[in-house]
Amino acid sequence: MNPLTAQDIRASLVNCTKGEATRLTMPRDLAAQPWEDLDFLGWRDPSGADRGCIVAESGEGLVGVVLRCVSLSARARFGGGRVAGGRVSMCSLCLTTHPGTGVTLMTAPRRAKKDNSLGIRLCADFACSLYVRGKKSPPAGGRFAESLSMAEQTERLRENLFAFLTRV
């Protein structure tokens, strides 16, 4: 991924108003991102709000969406499986499993439909690209052994991501 500026990110957001984009808190470490290893930039609002954001490069340019974290009580209704006495969930993008709160259910307001949103389970730290490339290991979670190459896993991550972004 090419390095992004705050202006690039704000201009890419498709599911919020310009005012909301202007008020969105950018990641504190934007310049220090491992851009060459990222398929998308994702972050949780550093102000502690229940918001997040994903920005990715597509053939038509940058596409970004604002996300909202689903509350723990609502998340329990959608819960993950139980493994060895604890809850384990899988990210919908990179297929990495995490215990506890390592995967977060996020919703994105749909651009074309008011009062309608689309949910997705994401690694809470948005490090999907790093997990697929073996640059980061999930704590006590894991990645299943796969017969796909890293390039194929990366392509699957991008396909899953753009399927979600297209639906938003």
According to DSSP, the number of beta strands is 8
Percent of residues in beta strands: 25-35%
| N- to C-terminal distance | 21 Å
Proportion of residues in helical segments: 25-40%
Radius of gyration: 16 Å
The overall number of domains is: 1
Q: Find the structural class using helix and strand composition.
A: alpha+beta
Sheet having the most strands: 5 strands, antiparallel
Unreliably modeled segments: 73-85
**Average pLDDT value?**
86
So what's the overall shape? globular
Strand order within the widest sheet? Answer: 1-2-3-7-8
Question: Element order, helices and strands?
Answer: HHEEEHEEEEEHH
Question: Total helix count?
Answer: 5
Short note summarizing the structure:
It contains five helices and eight strands, in the order ααβββαβββββαα. The protein has 168 residues and is of the alpha+beta class. A hairpin with a 7-residue loop joins strand 7 and strand 8 (117-123).
